[in-house]
UniProtKB/TrEMBL annotation:
Residues 615-641 are annotated as: Disordered. PROSITE patterns: PAC (PS50113), PAS (PS50112), RESPONSE_REGULATORY (PS50110). The modification 4-aspartylphosphate is found at D58. Keywords: Kinase, Phosphoprotein, Transferase, Two-component regulatory system. InterPro entries: CheY-like_superfamily, HATPase_C_sf, HATPase_dom, NreC/VraR/RcsB-like_REC, PAS, PAS-assoc_C, PAS-like_dom_sf, PAS_4. Residues 7-123 form the Response regulatory domain. Residues 344-394 form the PAC domain. This is PAS domain S-box protein. Residues 159-229, 271-324 form the PAS domain.
């Protein structure tokens, strides 16, 4: 090896590509081929044995993985630089290689001159990447820069206005007191309650709205985080007094402020009358029970349900109607503490006056009064409900069996489809792309030897045709088996599809991923294929400028919403035409998965496609994924696309 020549190792599992690269390097006066490898293990061994300056390596080879090989080469041969060469150009694969220290990433089909230049640049410790890959990898950074904004400023400017707007709709009187103890805000309830106008209340103090005897108590309400309701009297503008309940709190904002809530208790009697009317009009039996479990009141429905006259029930223990139940213990859990108790429901057994029993649903709700804490019991006979529930449970069991069979069928169907797609993609990568790549390299070597301009132009056109073929085959591999989908990233796979549509048609997109759950592999594949069908319709027929795709979690499932601003159409007219099966396929896929699909469109108004599928684990989720190491369809050691 000459002192100034760059030592190169070539690693590629395809013989035609490997030999074409070897001849290309031998044709360059400044490069020397020192080793060949056909898999990742041999690539690392050749780098250690020959200690080259550059290793040009196919990413997808058997017996190892590309990131691991790069790490091993950099650890054992620090002076060596690795240039990745692959039929794939997905962002995830590129970033993974760069993260472990690759000095370049080229897609197969790159002109021979660029490959040679990348090798020379790598030897100088300079970086190289295909232009289209660089643009794709930089796109997330541009999106992040456009999306940056200061959320804190937005919240800070609107927080206090939101509080005041909320307080203005409160069902009671509300006062906001400033740092100097002056009233800064009063809602409509306060103005009506005390007889003042807005301007008259401003700069007054809270003590001006209560009689002299309550002024000290009123001052104690201001500035505290929370105070319990306190019974006092309010004083109106004309000097008259009325019973009221005051409570205080703290209003969050840029300046410390107090908030005081005022309730007019003079309306309490009217409320009590309405409460009694509510009890009497209830379709269920209702009883009011004191803390010792004695019945204080009962409505007419109680008489009909239990067969007792209500006068006979007053003063009796509630156990006479609901015997041998844990009800009394539940009632005694409540006390007269400041903490507001919360109601609940129980299923008990009721007993009528003729000693017959029936299943009962009992709702237990607290009622705080001046005499103490009471309990409202709402009792409903659920005999028919339980019968209906039994019938429903049996029906649900049958539906579950049917659903499991449907899920098993769907899982096997999706598994078979994806396995076949994977086999086709592997065949394209391992055979067709490799042969065309070798042919392209041979063609470029032949062109360099031609001197006739006409012959060179013919060769240029032929080379462009081969490059176009490679590009379309790489896109076909992505369509058949997106790498993001293989790694469990549904949003990444959809983003790749949207990028393809943007490149081909100029349609801009917005992808919004708010799906927190991780779908099973079969469900993820079904979601992607269904969304792909809808987006193909956008690309072919919509003539849209923008498309918005959302992934949302809803009811233990995934909701996908695809909205475009295209020409729109009449769904009834289009779906009936021969050859327009895309929309029907979208609906059928969603229904087979146990979900639903909705399509809305009209001429001139764009189209919205929504479909939802459940995210339940398929019955055969334990089956190996297509082309996994445990799958019988993937021979051990075969390179994956």
């Amino acid at each position: 090896m000459g002192d100034n020549r760059i030592a190169v190792v070539v690693a590629d599992d395809d013989p035609a590509v490997r030999e074409a690269l070897a001849d290309l390097i031998d044709s360059h006066p400044d490069l020397e081929l020192v080793g060949l490898a056909i898999n990742h293990e041999q690539a690392v061994r050749a780098a250690v044995d020959h200690r080259p300056q550059v290793v040009i390596m196919d990413v997808h080879m058997p017996r190892g993985d590309a990131p691991g090989s790069v790490r091993a080469i950099r650890d054992q041969v620090p002076e060596a630089r690795v240039v990745a060469l692959s039929a794939h150009g997905e962002r995830e694969a590129v970033l993974n290689m760069l993260a472990v220290g690759a000095s370049g990433y080229l897609v197969k089909g790159t002109p021979a001159e660029e490959i040679l230049e990348a090798i020379v640049r790598a030897a100088r410790d300079q970086f190289s990447m295909s232009a289209e890959l660089l643009a794709d990898c930089a796109e997330p950074l541009r999106r992040a820069e456009r999306a940056s904004w200061r959320f804190e400023d937005l919240v800070g400017n609107r927080l206090e206005d939101s509080y005041l707007e909320l307080l203005g709709h409160a069902p009671c009187g509300v006062l906001v007191v400033g740092p100097r103890g002056r009233i800064e805000y009063a809602n409509a309830h306060i103005r009506h309650m005390f007889g003042y106008g807005s301007a008259e209340l401003r700069d007054k103090r809270l003590r001006d709205l209560v009689p002299e005897r309550y002024r000290t108590a009123s001052e104690q309400l201001i500035g505290r985080v929370f105070t319990a309701p306190s019974a006092m009297s309010g004083r109106r503008r004309d000097g008259s007094e009325f019973p009221a309940q005051f409570s205080g709190g703290h209003l969050q904002g840029r300046q410390p402020r107090g908030v005081v809530f005022v309730a007019d208790l003079s309306q309490l009697r009217a409320a009590e009358s309405r409460f009694r009317q509510l009890i009497e009009s209830s379709p269920d039996a209702m009883l009011i029970v004191d803390s010792s479990g004695r019945i204080q009141a009962a409505n007419h429905r109680t008489e009909a349900l239990f067969g007792y006259d209500r006068d006979h029930l007053i003063g009796r223990a509630v156990e006479a109607l609901l015997p041998d139940q844990p009800l009394t213990v539940s009632l005694r859990e409540w006390d007269d503490s400041l903490e507001e108790p919360v109601g609940h429901s129980m299923e008990l057994v009721g007993r009528r006056s003729d000693a017959k029993q029936f299943p009962a649903d009992v709702s237990i709700s607290p009622l705080r009064t001046e005499e103490g804490l009471l309990t409202v019991l709402t009792v409903r006979d659920i005999t028919e409900v339980q019968r209906a529930q039994f019938v429903l449970e049996r029906s649900l069991e049958l539906l579950e069996v049917t659903d499991r069979d449907r899920q098993a069928l769907l899982s096997h169907l999706v598994h078979a489809q994806e396995a076949e797609r994977g086999r086709i993609a592997a065949d394209i990568h391992d055979d067709t792309i490799q042969v065309i790549t070798a042919a392209s390299l041979r063609l470029q070597q032949l062109r360099r030897r031609l001197r006739d301009p006409d012959e060179q132009r013919v060769m240029d056109k032929l080379d462009e045709t081969l490059k176009l073929s490679l590009s379309r085959l790489r896109q076909l591999i992505f369509d058949l088996r997106p790498s993001s989908l293989e790694h469990g990233c549904l949003a990444g796979a959809l983003r790749g599809l949207l990028e393809q549509i943007r490149t081909e048609t100029g349609v801009t997109y917005r992808l919004e991923d708010r799906l927190t759950a991780h779908p099973p592999a079969e469900t993820m594949a079904l979601i992607y294929r269904t969304a792909q069908e809808a987006l193909v319709n956008v690309r072919k027929h919509a003539h849209a400028k923008t498309v918005h795709v959302q992934l949302l979690g809803l009811d233990d499932g995934c909701l996908v919403r695809i909205v475009d601003d295209g020409e729109g159409y009449n769904p009834l007219e289009v779906e009936s035409r021969p050859g327009h099966l895309g929309l029907s396929l979208i609906q059928e896929r969603a229904q087979i998965a146990g979900g639903w699909c909705r399509i809305e469109s009209e001429p001139g108004s764009g189209t919205t496609v929504e479909f939802w599928v459940p995210l339940g684990t398929p019955p055969d989720a334990a089956l190996p994924a297509p082309d996994s190491p445990d799958s019988p369809d993937s021979p051990e050691g075969d390179p994956q696309p």
